[in-house]
Amino acid sequence: MKNLMLLALAMGSMLAFAGPIEDEIVARIHKIGDVCLVGEACASGQLAADAGAQSDAQSPEAIYNRSCNTCHEMGIAGAPKLGDIDQWAPRLDKGMDVLYASGINGLAPGMPARGMCFDCSDDDIRAVVDYMTASVQ
Fold first, then answer.
1. With 80 as the cut, is the pLDDT of residue 13 above it?
2. Phi/psi of residue 120, each to 5°?
3. What domain range is 82 assigned to?
4. What pTM value is reported for the model?
């Protein structure tokens, strides 16, 4: 009987201290953000809209530096280097419409569609192509 009372007393004291400990655990593992999908009303929806507007307003140079620079600075996979007249001459001879199409649709085997800039519009890609060809004209 004495053991049973000690057991009940021990269980009661554990329950008394469990509340604050549990609160500390919950505070440490609480979620710190939310996922917001397109089309859902989110508390931070304005931030997502602002980020999209920033992408639309990027300069061709900024897009080039973010998406095209890796291949076109080093000539990877046959990419013509920015500012290299000899490499760009045969491409310029084909005309700007062909260059725009290559930028938008890609060119096998090395040029990926949109230069891996999947949030760029067709007009963005054309502006980047203009930026790159201006370096050799």
1. no
2. -85, 140
3. 59-134
4. 0.60
